[in-house]
Amino acid sequence: MEKNEIRRKVKSLRTMLSEEEKMKAAEEVFARLEATAAFLLADRILMYHSLPDELFTHSFLGKWAGRKRFFLPRVNGVNLEILPYEETRLELGSFQIEEPTGTDVVDPSEIELIVVPAVAYDRKGNRLGRGKGFYDRLLQTTNATKIGVGYEFQLVDEIPVEPHDVGMDMVITQHSTIIIKS
What we know:
Blueprint: H1 3-15, H2 19-34, H3 37-41, E1 44-46, H4 58-64, E2 69-76, E3 79-84, E4 90-92, E5 98-100, E6 113-116, E7 120-121, E8 127-128, H5 134-139, E9 145-149, E10 170-172, E11 177-179
Parallel strand pairs: 1-2, 1-6, 6-9, 9-10
Antiparallel strand pairs: 2-3, 4-5, 7-8, 10-11
């Protein structure tokens, strides 16, 4: 399947989910994430602040914010900057995503774990994003463990890979935990 065909298919499946199904899936996925050694051992974690069509992260951030040091990305031109997560320091930024404010940008090398959103993943850890390359550019600059999270239907047979694409070390859905690199 071509990338745009995968994007269309996943988008149509996401629109059919009820709010209850979305919340249940997020709880199951993040319970699986909490059980991984990568999460348990990491202190500095880059998350994402979910859009309505993504696996919901707001409750998870709130649950762990006092025990883990979370960071969120902020769009700066064609790149992502990393800033500390504080619920009171969010404002609507690029692409209608709530992003952190401030000037305390963190170097990607300081992050131990990155929880990465996507349109789709495959069992080899390949990731299909929205097509702008923001995460691929960021992921090339870090040795952090990369964990992709999503709904089970976001797991597809194969993602076409390009040289700039950065794979995941693990992919978690509500029914699967796939370890690619330990």
